[in-house]
Amino acid sequence: MMFRTRFAPSPTGPLHLGHAYSALLAHDMARAAGGAFLLRMEDTDLDRCRPEWEAQIVEDLAWLGLTWDGPIHRQSDKIAAYNARLEPLAARGLLYPCSCTRADIRAALSAPQEGVAFAVYPGTCRHRPMTDRQPGDALRLNLAAALDALPEAPRFTETGPAHAGPHQIDRTQALAQIGDVVLSRKGEDIVAYFLASAFDDADQGITHVIRGEDLFDFTPVQVILQRLFGLPTPTYHHHRLIRDDQGKRLAKRDDARAISKHRAEGATPQDIRRMVGL
User: What is the DSSP string of 249-266?
Assistant: First the structure.
């Protein structure tokens, strides 16, 4: 099977050195394997995503010397399709409507969940059937029921430096650290990042997901969703993060490290490669 990977930024701000590292690494790995490198815009956050940021991303990637195969894929074009694909889960009794606000959820949690990617939902609305869904309700995955519906524990392979090796998702750990995640976001016709990404990876034939180490904790829920929908599970490679002088992960608010700023100051693509250790 041909190596196929993607770079999937959200057009909510400028690309920084961390994005450059991820894009360059994925591009280089794909080209070295004689495979394909795709560009996907994860733009389901309609409030924050802007066409001018997408245009800047495309310009910066081209300036870095990256080329991608096929047209740019935009998740915003497929929101209705993503939501429609939730219907089989609802029919299997694996979803329930949730009217809790973020404040409600925080108040119900006994303690902050340090070191995990999810604020674990306490299950306040888990008793509600889908027939009780009201306008504005979120849709949550009943994780315990979902795991019970699978014939075996989901597995995935990781090749990144921090977590390399085979991984089997432990039911007890998943319930304690992931919980009943929102798949369709409240009050908006928008699906969660990890659901849209799982569908797109399958639809685009992605064999290798190359992304930052900070997203490793999202992998189990994506793999669970893949198994529920009968989708293939790609190989995952979570790479090191590019950090600032204080050791903090770079974010889009770190405009001083934006690729566009480096370009304006006279940096070359090779300078950027050197800065990120490539």
Answer: BP-TT-GGGBHHHHHHTT
Buried b (16+ CB within 10 A) or exposed e, 149-166: eeeeebebebebeeeeee
267, two tokens: 């940096």
Buried b (16+ CB within 10 A) or exposed e, 217-250: ebbbbbbbbbbbeebebbebbbbebbeeeeeeeb
Q: How many CA atoms lie within 13 A of 50 on its CB side?
A: 7
Beta bridge partners of 96: 140
pLDDT level of residue 274 (50, 70, 90 thresholds): very high
Q: Map tokens 């389901």 to a residue.
A: 44
pLDDT digits (tens, 9 = 90+) for 195-253: 999 999 999 999 999 999 989 988 999 999 999 999 999 999 999 998 765 555 555 55
Spatial contact of 149 and 173, defined as CB atoms under 8 Å apart:
no
In angstroms, the first-to-last Cα distance of the chain is: 27
Backbone phi, then psi, for 243, in 5-degree steps?
A: -120, 160
- The predicted structure's pLDDT at residue 265: 93
Phi, psi of 138, rounded to the nearest 5 degrees: -80, 165
Query: In 115-268, which residue ranges form alpha helices assigned H by DSSP?
Result: 143-149, 171-177, 193-203, 219-229, 259-264
DSSP string, 8-35: ---SSS--BHHHHHHHHHHHHHHHHTT-
Q: 278 is written with which tokens?
A: 């490539």
pLDDT tens for residues 15-39? 999 999 999 999 999 999 999 999 9
